[in-house]
Amino acid sequence: MTDAETEPRSPESSIGGHLLLERVAAGDALAFGSLYDAFVADTYAICLNKCANPSSADKAMAKTWIFIWSHAAALNEQAGSTKFIVLSTAWTVTSQCGKNFAHLNTLETC
Question: How large is the C-alpha radius of gyration of the chain?
């Protein structure tokens, strides 16, 4: 085996950078795990930033990753890097989180 074969690949290392999304779209759970591992910190930071509290952020994380798993084929067709697609998805999913409406105190959408 060469060094290139044993080194971990980044999510952006394939042509077009969407190899993991393509594999996730085909139902590859290991690829989903790799995608999650690559972007978990960034997606959680978005969720924490946009949601009112850690509980809401946890729910938003679950919604984000379920959406990515369920819509990987469509996401794979989008322009941009895998990172851009995943983080844009997290941003969109969390766009209605309670932090945006903190002044209402009664509205929590995540």
Answer: 16
Number of neighbouring beta carbons within 10 Å of residue 65:
20
Residues 63 and 104: their CA atoms lie apart, in Å, by 23
C-beta separation of 77 from 90 below 8 A: no
Chain segment 42-80, per-residue pLDDT in tens: 999 999 999 988 999 999 999 999 999 999 999 999 999
Measured distance between the N- and C-terminal CA atoms of the chain, rounded to whole angstroms: 47
Task: Count how many Cα atoms sit within 13 Å of the Cα of residue 13 in the half-sphere of its side chain.
Answer: 10
Mapped onto helix, strand or coil, the DSSP state of residue 110 is: coil
Query: Whole-angstrom Cα distance, residue 33 to residue 28?
Result: 9
Amino acid at 52: A
Contact yes or no for 49/86 (Cβ under 8 A): no
pLDDT of residue 98: 58
- The rounded distance, in Å, linking the Cα atoms of 47 and 102 is 15
Closest CA to 60 of 21, 103, 109: 109
